[in-house]
Amino acid sequence: MAKRFIEVLKGKRLAPPPWWLMRQAGRYLPEYRELRNRAKNFLDFCYRPELAVEASLQPVRRFGMDAAILFSDILVIPDALGQRLEFREGEGPVLEPIASDRDFARLKPENLHRRLAPVYEAVRRLAGGIPAEVALIGFAGAPWTVAVYMVEGQGGGARTKIRDWFRRRPADGETLLALLADATIEHLSRQIASGAEAVQLFDSWAGGLDDDEFRRFVIAPTRRIVARLKERHPGVPVIGFPREAGARYPEFARETGVDAVGLDGAIVPSWAVREIGACAALQGNLDNRVLVAGGERLAGEARRVLEGFRARPHVFNLGHGVLPETPPEHVALLAQIIRAWKD
Amino acid sequence: MAKRFIEVLKGKRLAPPPWWLMRQAGRYLPEYRELRNRAKNFLDFCYRPELAVEASLQPVRRFGMDAAILFSDILVIPDALGQRLEFREGEGPVLEPIASDRDFARLKPENLHRRLAPVYEAVRRLAGGIPAEVALIGFAGAPWTVAVYMVEGQGGGARTKIRDWFRRRPADGETLLALLADATIEHLSRQIASGAEAVQLFDSWAGGLDDDEFRRFVIAPTRRIVARLKERHPGVPVIGFPREAGARYPEFARETGVDAVGLDGAIVPSWAVREIGACAALQGNLDNRVLVAGGERLAGEARRVLEGFRARPHVFNLGHGVLPETPPEHVALLAQIIRAWKD
Question: What is the third-level CATH fold of B4-340?
Fold first, then answer.
């Protein structure tokens, strides 16, 4: 039996739509926090298959999503390349930024698969243990977003260091993006070989670029990754999530060859249906703060999202990850609303 | 100044739309027939740069199309690979079909660029001699269509030999398509390096395949070619023309990453606008027999096409090549109608 989530990614319209939530495995769940306490630190959590498997399955067990996403982090790639990296409680990731040719030369792509072996082991166990109707999603950060962390030392902010660096030394910038694209291809390809049925590329820092930068840093590496994955694994869908791409979403969908695009909360569903819907399946885009609010507001907004995307293949999701302060019972309410939806 | 044809391929809507016609350089023009008589045979015509350049420019000089397409043939690739090939007057191309491993082993991809050097010379001269506002289109046959000619020995027909062969010996089929995809990448890449500003892939025999065959024989090789060309030549648009793809056109547009799709005469414009228009620019699709008919019928149908595609980026063209019996004055009338069109 085809899984509903995969069917939609391949272009079928289903009502109600399949659903999952970004960061569905996370701190809003008490059983996650309990699990988290068993790991020394966040990277240890990611690299212990028994913990990663359990974290991936917790939300599916509670709420019955149509897909489980591997519990991992986009920064396992810089970590596996040898960059020093720490997750500080309440602060997010902090990396020793790449600043010189020497830092650059120290990156070791050849260690990737060895360091990431526990991730593939988690995927293998998940593929064996997941309910039959639930799909398994693998993922990675897109090269640009990972490069931002590697050069800035952290996410967010104005990204002035990396944009300066790419302007002053464009060849080095391209080399870094190409190295990351190749590492991402290998990482996702290994996840697929281990049992992932679809993969998502998170490009969290795709906003705030100019046209030319968006093409070179976001579209070009994504296109390369999609093309290589499709050669190696025909039929395995790829979801692109260029967060805050705004008016550039249609170009992203047209030019990269992704099967689906993740839409952030700023995107109006009817516009996406018209401008992207023929090009790719649409995933999104309930405001994550509405899920914190709950009640009538959640019910109304969730129906607006369901209604807005009904004309095209749609995977219900948030526009951004589940916030830690989200009451789990609001997710249960959302599950009810989605399941009760009729076209 | 950006050329109108290229602007539309990059996603801009223009009224009136830019236009050119498939086989605009051809037997319907007396000056073409005169030129043709100066060549020993059709391949000699293709391989003599001064003749190919003149044939490419003739229609543009007469009718002022927005693009000139290189005068050449999709079968220069099998010819350059060493397959015996003859163009018989009134009969079309006849090839010594590939039937055995020995035939297969005799194909010599390493000779490609040497044999095709006159084609690139023609592109170089055209790029230098074309009017400033006219774009230059390079082209090649898509791997599946070229494979049909190579295995069947001719075009058209039920393609039973090749489908049997691909079913009995799938690995050989894939190898042939991969060899042709690589040759096509090299051939188009060299045309672009020589001055072609956009390229079109003709997949004339894309019809009549089942879903799985369409994906493996049409979509997969096209995706590979598009991805490689876009890596080597960012910003150079690729047009795909999977003739008779019917209901599979949207999947083709979504999955291959082409910038524009050529639509055959069977496609209803409003459907294409809705199902493909957000994904790729649309090119087509006036019935070539209407161009033979001329008069009110031509005027009415041409306006129906202009009107039908107005909502999306559109390049006016036929749904199939200009027929030899087309009166040149009908093409002049069409030019007038297109130029007078207001949105």
Answer: TIM Barrel (3.20.20)
CA distances A282 to A199, A261, B58, B124, Å, are: 15, 5, 47, 43
DSSP B17: P
Phi, psi of B6 (to 5 degrees): -70, -40
SS3 B243: coil
**Per-residue pLDDT reduced to its tens digit, A59-100:** 999 999 999 999 999 999 999 999 999 988 777 899 999 988
Closest CA to A245 of A223, A220, A215: A215
Structure tokens at A240: 């692109």
Q: Which residue, A179, A178, A206, A201, is CA-closest to A191?
A: A201
Domain borders along chain B are: 4-340
- If one counts every other C-beta atom within 10 angstroms of the C-beta of residue A300, the result is 12
The partner residue sitting opposite B279, judged by closest CB among A224, A230, A278, is A278
Q: Does B234 touch chain A (CB under 8 A)?
A: yes
Could you give the ipTM of this predicted complex?
A: 0.81
Among B311, B318, B312, residue whose Cα is nearest residue B338: B318
Beta strands A92-95 and A85-88, pairing class: antiparallel
Fold of A4-337: TIM Barrel (3.20.20)
Closest CA to B6 of B24, B20, B18: B18
Nearest of B14, B3, B7, B1 to residue B259 by alpha carbon:
B7
> Looking at this protein, which amino acid is placed at residue A293?
A
What does the pLDDT look like over B273-293, one tens digit per residue? 999 999 999 999 999 999 999
Catalytic annotation, residues of B: 23, 27, 36, 73, 149
Cα(A151)–Cα(A167) distance, integer angstroms: 13
- CB of A273 less than 8 A from some CB of B: no
Q: What is the pTM of this model?
A: 0.89
